[in-house]
Structure formats: C-alpha cells, structure tokens
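Input:
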Amino acid sequence: MPRRKDLRKVMVIGSGPIVIGQAAEFDYAGTQACRSLKEEGLEVVLVNSNPATIMTDMNMADRVYIEPLTPEFVAKVVRLERPDGLLPTLGGQVGLNLALELSEAGVLQEVGVELLGTPLSTIKRAEDRELFRSMLQGINEPVPQSAIVSAVDEAVKFAREIGFPVVVRPAYTLGGTGGGIAYGEPELVEITTRGLKHSIIRQVLVEQCVLGWKEIEYEVMRDAADNCITVCNMENLDPMGVHTGDSIVVAPSQTLSDKEYQLLRAASLKIIRALGVEGGCNIQFALDPQSFQYYVIEVNPRVSRSSALASKATGYPIAKVAAKIAVGLRLDEIKNAVTGKTYACFEPALDYVVVKFPRWPFDKFASADRALGTQMKSTGEVMAIGRTFEEALMKAVRSLEIRRYSLMLPETVKLSNEELEKRLSIPHDERLFYVAEALRRDFPVERVAQSSQIDTWFLQKIKNIVRHEQALSRQGRDGLSPKNLKAAKRLGLADRTIAQLTGFSEADIRNMREELGLVPVFKMVDTCAAEFEAETPYYYSSYEEEDEAPLEPGRRVVVLGSGPIRIGQGIEFDYCSVHCVWALRQEGVKAIIINNNPETVSTDFDTADRLYFEPLVPEDVINILKKERPDGVLVQFGGQTAINLAKPVADAGFKILGTSVEDTDVAEDREKFDALLERLKIPRPPGGAAFSINEAAAIARRVGFPVLVRPSYVLGGRAMEIVYNQDDLVEYMRSAVQVSPEHPVLVDKYILGKEVEVDAVSDGEDVVIPGIMEHVERAGVHSGDSIAVYPPQNLTPTITNKIVDYTIRLAKALRVKGLLNIQYVIGLNNEPYVLEVNPRASRTVPYLSKITGIPMITLATRAILGRKLAEMGYRGGLCREAPHVSVKVPVFSFAKLLDVDVSLGPEMKSTGEVMGVSGDFAAALYKGCIAAGYSFPKEGTVLVTVSDRDKQETLPIVRELADLGFKILATSGTAKALQAAGIPVEAVKKLYEGSPNIVDLLRAGKINLVLNTLTRGRMPEREGFRIRRTAVELGVPCITSLDTMRAVVSVLKARMQGDLVSVIPLQEYSLEEVAM
Amino acid sequence: MMRAMLALEDGTVYEGDAFGAAGESWGEVVFNTGMTGYQEVLTDPSYCGQIVVMTYPLIGNYGINNEDSESRRAFVRGFVVRETCSTPSNWRSRCGLEAYLLQQGIIGLSGVDTRAVTKRLRECGTMRGVLSTVDLDPESLVAKAKNSPHLTGQALVEEVATREPFVVPGNGYRVVLFDFGTKNNIIRCLNRRGCEVIVVPPQTKPEEVFKYQPDGVVLSNGPGDPTDVSYAADAAREFMGRLPVFGICLGHQVLGLALGGRTYKLKFGHRGVNHPVKDMVTGRVYITSHNHGFAVDETSLPEEVFVSHINLNDNTVEGMRHRYLPVFSVQYHPEASPGTNDAEYLFDEFMAVMQHERR
Ligand SMILES: Nc1ncnc2c1ncn2[C@@H]1O[C@H](COP(=O)(O)OP(=O)(O)O)[C@@H](O)[C@H]1O
Ligand SMILES: Nc1ncnc2c1ncn2[C@@H]1O[C@H](COP(=O)(O)OP(=O)(O)O)[C@@H](O)[C@H]1O
Ligand SMILES: [Mg+2]
Ligand SMILES: [Mg+2]
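Output:
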C-alpha cells in the first residue's frame, strides 16, 4: 500500500548526547529518517537534546526542539505540536524508553498520537527480558537457561543451581550498562546490585554463560504486509562474552556454511514476525562452534549501532527504509537508492569483506581497566573494506589513529610465552596484537584458538599477515621483489610497515610501487555484487585489477573527515565535515569526502558527490588524491585528524585550501606561537618548554606555582595536570611523562580565572565573530568539559572588546582563511590571556551555529573558495547577540568506565554534550543540566568534602544550600570550617575512621548530592576517588568543581521559583537571516 | 604455483593461479552472487556445461562437508574465484575446496578480479569461454572459446540425469519426479513431507509413469536449454488434467513449452540467493534462490495460464499457474540449498493439490 494518507505530521525522537554505547549512529539514522519522511511529504517534528548533530539542523525537520529528553519535556512538545504519529525507533534505547514512558503516562493517548513502526507491545516483548523469553519459547526459538530477578539473593540462588559463570544482563539498557559476567558469588552480588540500579524497571536477567560461542548478528527488515528481508549478517571475531560494540566485527559472516547462515536467517525472520516489528530490527545469536545449536541472545527492535554498520557495509539505507515502512510503504514500493533501478525488497550481496574495529578511550584513561566484557567501553569505531580479510583488517587498524600501522606492538615483544598466553585468554583492547605476537612466535594456531577462543579461520588470516611481515624482514632490502611487494599490499600492509621491515623509507616504497604501477584501484559498493549497474559513488580501495571510479569533470575538492569518535574529537567534527560538503555542492563544486567512521552522516552514500571509505593516514589519502587530482583539499573541518594530514598532503604536492600549512604550524608550534604573540603584544600565560626535570622546575620557579604541565602536541588535554608545588612537579615529571629532546614538556603558569571561548570566520579581510562563550567552570577544567554559556553573562565591555580585538588580530596575523577557535582565560587582573588558538573548526561550532543562526561552516567554506563575507551579508567583528540564553553542558560516560576518576581537570573526559535554551540563564542552565541527566534532589542531604585550598570559597555556596533547606554533611576538616562560619553541619566519618562512614551512607542512600574537590594526586586508592566513584556508581550527582556547584545552586533556586519548562523550537531561536 | 587462464569469446582473458585439476575445459561462463553455498553450487547439476564465477571474493572458508552436496558429484566445467581458502574452519568440514576440485577433476582459477569478470558478463551477456592450465596463449585460447559449442544443442540433461528409475521410500503420497538433473533437496523436501518419491529418467514415457499410479508429478531442475528436451514437454502435456504437476526451474520451462509457450535466453541469467520474487496472488515478496539462464516468455502463454510470480529486479516470469488444472511451476528453487527457505511453502501447496485431487 502507498504511504498512509491519514498521517500529516510525524514526530521523531533523537538519542540525546553521545555516551559510550550510543554514539553518532543515531544522528545518521535520525538524519536519514527525517529526510526520508520529508520526501514523503510529511511535516516532521524532531526532539533531541544534542546540538552537535546534523539531525538537529534547521533544515532537517520543520520543527526542531533541542530540549531535554525527559518525559516531562517531550510531553510538552507532544502537547504543543500534536503530531499524528511518533517514530520511536530511531533514537536508540533513549528514544525507545521515552516513547514507552510517554505512552504509559497516557500522554500519547491524550493527544491521540500513534506509535509508528513498532507498537508498544513489541517494544516490551523485545526489551522486557521476561516477555522476551516467553515470546521466544512460544515460537520454540532457543534461549539460554536464565532467571529474571529483581533482588540479589534470587540471583545467587539461581547461580547456585546452574553453576558459575553466569551473565548478568539488565533490562532496558544499552551498551550492556550495569551488566557483566560473574565467575563467583561476591562478583555476582556486586554486578547484580549495579545492574538493578541501571534498569529502569529494576530487573536483570541472570543467564547461563555461553562464553566462546560464535556471536552472530542479523539485520532484518519487515513491512506491514509481512514481507521480510535480512540486510546482512555479521560475525564477531571476539566470540560471546565481549560486547558486540567492543568486538572486532566482520561482514558478511566468514565461518558459517550456507546451512548455518540460513538456519539463523530463518530464525531471524521468525522472530521479527513474532515481534511484529514494522521497520528494522537487530537480532543477536550465540552459535555453538561445534554443532547447529544456537541461542537467541537479544533483539533490538529499532535501528542500532549494528544497523548503521550494516548500512555502510552493504550500501542498504536501513533507517531510510525503516522510516518509509513506518508510514505505510511496502518494501517492494521503495526504490533501492543505490542502484536506482531495483527495489528495497532484496538482500544485498557483498563482493568484498568489511571489518569494524572499536576505538577505546584508554589512551585518555590510563587508570581504567582495559579488560573487555559484556559492558561496552569503546567510544567509537572504524570500518574498512577490502577484497581480502587481511586488507580490510589492516586498513581498520590504520584507521584507528592509535599510532599503529601493523600488527606489531613493541610491548608484546618483552613478554614471556606464559605471560603472552595469559594475555590471550583475557579479552582486552590490544588482544589482536598479542594474538599476532603469539603467532609470530609460532604458537600453534590451535593453541591460540584454545586460549583466545577466536576461530582458527581468523587466526590463519592473521598468521598470513605475520608470516609475510617476517618474510619481508628476513629478505631485507635486496629481497624485496615486485612479487613480494604486491603480495604485501594485497595483505593490506602499509608502505610504512614494509619500509620498516625492509629498511627502506616509506617514500622509497611508494616510489617503487608507483614505478611498478602497483597502485590501488577503487571499487564500488553497490549492494548487488555488480549484478546490476549502480549509481552511487561509494568507493573503497583495493590492490586489484580493474578500477571503477572514473574521474568526474569539473571542479573537485576533497574534504578530509575526522575518523572514529573519541574523547576530544566527537561528532561535532562530522557535523562540520558534512556542512562543508553541502556548502561545496551549493557552490557548484564536486565534493569528495574521505572518512572511515561507519556511524556518521558524512559516510552516508548521498552526502557527498563521492565517498571514499578509507583510512585517514597519509598513504591511503595520497593514493586517493593521486587518482582524483582535486583542485584542493580541505583539512579544517575534520578536527585534529585532518589537520595532521595537512603537511603530508601538501608535501605530496596537493593544494591545501584555506589557512596555509605554515600558518597552522605557527599556531601549533610553541616557539613560533610565542613569537607571534610577542609581536602582537597579546598576553599568554608565562611558561616554557622543558626538556628535563630540572628545566621544568626552573620554569616553575620563574613563573611561580601553580603551573599547568603537559607533553607537547596533544589533543584533548591528555596527560595535562595542574601542579601546585615542587614535589608534585617532580612526581609528575617522573611518572606521567617521559621527557626527551623531541618530546618536551610544556610548563605554563596556571592562571586562575574565567575561561571564555571564541569561534570566528575569516575571509582574509574581514573576521566575523558569531559569538563568545563564557565557561561556568574556571580555567583548569578543560573547555570541552565545562558548561559553556552564550551569550556571556559576566563580561565587561572592556574585556569583550579586548577579546574581539585579539581575535581579529590573531586571525589576520595567522592569515586565517576559514575558521578559527581561541580559548582565553581572564585573569583576576581582568586581562584576557590566550590559552590556545586552533586554526580549524572546533567542538563549539555546531552549538554556536545553532544558537546564533549563523551558518559558520557554510560561510567558512565559501570564504575558502574565495568569496567575501561582506558579499554574503556579514560585517566584520562581533555579531549582534541572539535573543535567547543557551548553555552547553558536557555529558560523561563514567558509569561504563569503572576505575576512572570523575573529577574535572585540564584533561578532557566528556563524551558528549547537550544544550539548554531559554529566556534567562538560570532556566537555560536548568534545562541543560536536566538534559545532561543530572537528577537534582528537591530536598535532602548534601555531602561536602573539599580541599583546604577551596574551603573559604565553599562557605557561601554551602550556606545557600542550607538556606534552601538541604541538610549538610561534611568530613571533619570541612565541617570545622563550616561550623566556624556558623553553617549548620553534621560531621561524618572518613573511610579510615570506621563506619558508618561516607561510603556506607552513600550505599544506604542517605546522601543525595556530593560536593568534592580534588586534593593532590589522583591515586585510585585515595579517599576522594573512592567517594566519587561510589557516588557515580550509585547514580548520586557528584560535583567536583565549585563553579559547577555554584551553578547548580542557582538552578535549585531557580526551580523553586516554579515552572521553567517552556520549550522553544530552533526555528524561533534567532532573528538572524540564515544565509543558506 | 601452476597458472591458469580463462578466455572469453569476446577476446578478454583473465590469468591467475590454477587450483584443483589441471587441463582444459570449455563452457558457458556465468556468475553467481551467493556469499555462501559454494558446495551446493558445485554439485547442482543445473550448472553442467558452465564455468562458474563466484562474485564473493573468499571461497572455501568453511571447507567441504559430507552433507551439503546436491548430487553425486560436481558438475561445473570450471570454477573461478578471487581467493580460495587453504585453511577452512567449520565443524563439519571434511576437506578443503582445492582438494575437492582435484578429486572431482575440476579446474579452478583463483587470483583474478572476479568483479571485473562479472561486470564483463553483465554488460556483454553470458559468453562461451575456455579455462586452461595447459594452454596459456591468449590468442589460441580465445580462438578455442570462439569455436567451442554453444550451450544449446548439448545433451546436458542426459549427462546428469539418472539412467535407471529409483525409489525413495515414504508412506505418504506417491510422487514421480522427472529427473532432468534434480538437486537432492527436491527429493528431501518431498520425502520430508512423507512422499514416496520415484525418480525417473528424463525420457521416461508417460504410460510408464501412469503405471506407478502416482498422486502427482514433479518436473525437476536441470541444465541447458529447455528446447533441447522437447520430448519432456510432450510427456508433460500427457499429465495435464490427469495428475497434479509441479515444475521447478528447467521443469518450469518444460511446462511452459508443454503449454504452448516459448522460452528465451536471458542476457546473463539469474544466479544467486537474493532474488526478490513477488507472488502475484498474495502480493507477498519472497527472497529466493535462483539458477537459470532461460525464461518463459509471458506473451507466449495461452490465456488459461497466468503468471503467478514475477522477479522484482527485471519483471521476468518466475512462476505460472493453470487457471483450471492442478498444474503450476516456478522458475526458482523452493528447495533452496543454497539459499533461503522462503519459498518452501510451495511444496506444501503441491501436497494440498495432491490431497484435493485424490478426493
Ligand atoms: N548468555 C551469555 N553468555 C555469554 N555472553 C553473553 C551472554 N549474553 C550476552 N552475552 C554477551 O554480552 C554482550 C552484551 O549483551 P546484550 O544483551 O547484547 O547487551 P546490550 O543490550 O547492551 O547489547 C553480548 O554482546 C554478548 O557478547
Ligand atoms: N595556563 C593556563 N592556566 C589555566 N588553565 C589552563 C592553562 N592552560 C590550559 N588551561 C586549561 O586546560 C584546558 C586544556 O588546555 P588546551 O590548551 O585548551 O588543550 P586542548 O588542546 O586539549 O584544548 C583549557 O581548556 C584550560 O581550561
Ligand atoms: Mg547487544
Ligand atoms: Mg582547548
């Protein structure tokens, strides 16, 4: 049947901030869905709290609400907009749960909103472990032996019956939150307690553990006429026990015969029919490697990370099709957008191998436990395509940007065979490299399979790679024949690796290759293995025979994307890349994008004129450039990933458009930058680069403590710390970093003061500053982790003018063409100091663009192409303030990363962000905090325990809390200070003072809010760490910055003043003309 | 490592590594898009006379097992893959692909750009080709390809079909299965439904069939051009109106001829397991397993026959049904192997028809 005519207006719920387990894939899905619905002539209303997404753009929906994804706020939107239908399956678990709560609260019924796609009953049957199990038993699909429990002792009882290990899986969660594998009773108690906390219905499943079974996923689609197809299946290289989100995944399955493939496919169709899903659905199976026996592990009745991966792996746009199905279309009525000829009702045939590799944040969280289990820890992922598994795997490894180009990991070489063997049996982020090392040492494949439980098929392929590496190094320089070289490239070995192994330079290898004509060809992803002609320009490289990517006539510009989502470089940069591509196309320039992140909009097949799904490293990028011979390359929009490619690309003889490589370097190179500021008479915190511990100490003495220390050239403030005295400095220099002539450590005076951030666009003449953002947290808390307010609330005109003046002069001095981001700290002397200048698109661009209505990326792109801002209707200088106040609030994923300290500092820790908008600051802040997931108590008990340094400053804040009627608890030192100030307080025991101590009280639920500031050092065993972690694990808000606390207090006050929850659509934010 | 070469009649040649048997063989070159099921493909008699190119690049991953063969041996004339797996992994695997081809005397070619070959066949249509490990001279090999026999006119059905009737016992309906090169799974699908299956040679006379007093007749799949087995069409005509008839693949084409229709050759055929077929009666779409190079011409069918299924990709006839008689057929493979079981319901329909006719 054609699309339902009774639907006029449809509401879509997004997935909110990026957290571990829920990343950019839902921006991709949501964006596709919104466009797909508009294609069908529907009016679209969107709600999502995440401003860094494409889906929350003005043009994506008729009405865009960047509002908290809570029942009360979404209910407001529903009542205001009164849509005919609600599409709950595109916003991940968040969207699904919200839809559930709304309908249970009767809101949908009250307004007469129909749930589209997947009915409520289905959501319940899939998500509620009990209903799910009985549904499957009803259609005799096998599930592991399990018990649904809502209390710890029930869990223990069951485990005793079936024996350990058992798996604990909470209901209605994502990324395996709160779950885990328990090998013994104490563990079970701990995990179950946590699990029950995380499940919105206080329900967990305790289940027989099938560790080591194959983990296989199917992506299934079904329409209202009961037509079903499977888009693709995927096999996890890491077997059951490692969350699919943390597993290396390959598509299609490699070790399944047709019988096994069809067995699970048939089961998938049976299940989606029994569920009655109308749209897409993800089904996970555990398959016995030694028989046809299998278990259904779970079903996600919605688009998911896996469906995004499947879409990119096959070219089949699952979300787009799901949305059309939801509004009544049938699979055989929807065109296959890729071939443009066939229909969506078919099953893609792949003629290549796809490998997905997770990206973990352990480079940032040194103290985190790197073992992998049923709870997801990765923040993002990369995907690579090849004609051999080896090629795809090696491309994936290169794409991760973890400074690995091969399977060689120096650390592994030192290990004894015993240690090595041990590391094989515990899954962890670097296991692949340990497996390679074991094979390098001629461990029998069977033995490695035994300890790692990885299928020998994969191990044999890894062995191929290792063998070839060894052969190359054995033969050395003279042994490198064209034949070996070709074989090496077919196995995906990087030029750099080959060079390393043979003693040539990377350049030598490239020259050799090119002389031999040994260059990659580019093949098309066409959904049909070449059976039909395809129209989509979606390509991957391979060392194959025939090239399929004819040069496009006309002006071509290559945009370098930002790769996997990681802390410090999130979805914001995909937003920027996508807008850049769109702007180029508007200007009549052919836009070519290179990226490797399967979750994103930028890698959707119809975003750019041409998509290359490739690693963002010099070799692969230059291969593409040599083929495309573009008029220029844009490196400003893909974060540090793209910036780092600027030099190699320029050296290879290609034109970097916009700010030059040299000028970019001036901003990034300490000495050059200092010299520039010197010349411009713009102050920056005094300091210098130290090449030894003594030099560092000397600098510190010169500028005076506290100082901020960090290794040079870092992104996201890694290993950065504020150091208050000589001892700590020495301690830091010894432990935290290894100093060397090529890696100096930067030592700067720590300037206490307010941090502000500026984004600007320059065409070389005019510099347009859309706005200034004021941070709630003082400098010292990473800009990405602090609450950013627009417009600034406490900047004097003098300071504002200085900032504008500095920004304009810096932009001109650096000859910026395009975007520029500057962070300033305003000292207590009211002087702005420059902290850093990023001559590129920044994290705050999407946020600022949305709130001001100024399309910064579009302007920047046009400026780079040579157009003038004036002619686009923009005057230089600071733009007129938009009428609303908005705050950007960071969101963290600490619940997933046990052993990570939650206290804020110069190292960035947040994974995502939300935005709150309102008429006044307090209300905006309130919205922002609610959207970020803070659940502030209306009354109750606040625990205060702060370092001596902060005691004085804490007093007024706590007094306000007391006046608001909160009961105050404090540790002895803090309590004294409070009493002295005449604030009613009750002293509590510290951990070592016996019980009941703080942690006991937290566990007993006697504390509703924690204020704790850092005392020296960050040793996990330290008291503060324990308190903060306990609070987070128990979901008690834990504030570690006095500034945040001050803000929270104002929120609490504001809320007492009554109803603030009014919602405003993006379309009504600003009066600015959107020059699109 | 021994080299091998594939030459097409249009002059293109592809050189790569030889695996499996040595020697030289000619045939019609076709491509198959299935990502799994190579063992079933190798042993599907319908591929007799053809050199099969697999579009999925990694073939042999799960080895060869004792259960998944669709006939007594492999019938393809040659097997072309991007990469063959020398270290298969699957609990049922008994030997590797290479060893199997060697034992079956089939020439394999690996290390060629199979996507390039596929695009060639898609654009120029199915072609004759020669695969050789002994003659690696492009000119002479192309010449051989040009001069090799066409698919039509070869006695392929006779080559693959059983020569003697045989019975697969069952205590339900008695079904006579005309073997034009049947896949084992057709027999299994009938047998699983209780049928006693009497498998008879292609040239079996109708009166012989009636002697068995069957409840129904099934015309199996098989290789080559249906016009080469016109005798089968004559036989089929005899059963119409007297017994329920169910045609599969070649059996469907034979039925088409029997009904007075025409068949024609498709440009590059349908070979894979992902073809959407629409049931014109219910409007439902099924993902089905295909292996055919010919099709029935819709316009040639008499009015008492209607098209019951079409292919959504190219709208070709995938099934037909007699308006008044218990006679129906499909161009694709309800028995799957390889492929989905989406269409297995057709065997149930056949059972229902037999039951209805018995009363
Ligand atoms: N019974 C089990 N035995 C072993 N591992 C399991 C079992 N159930 C789940 N797992 C592992 O836990 C992971 C997460 O479980 P899942 O229910 O899929 O969580 P989520 O809902 O976050 O996807 C799975 O990917 C699988 O690897
Ligand atoms: N000299 C300084 N005084 C006070 N705070 C600083 C100083 N230098 C850096 N910071 C703090 O550290 C954070 C990270 O420093 P920054 O140079 O921006 O690193 P990144 O490249 O990771 O953004 C800043 O946002 C700021 O809060
Ligand atoms: Mg899962
Ligand atoms: Mg910064």
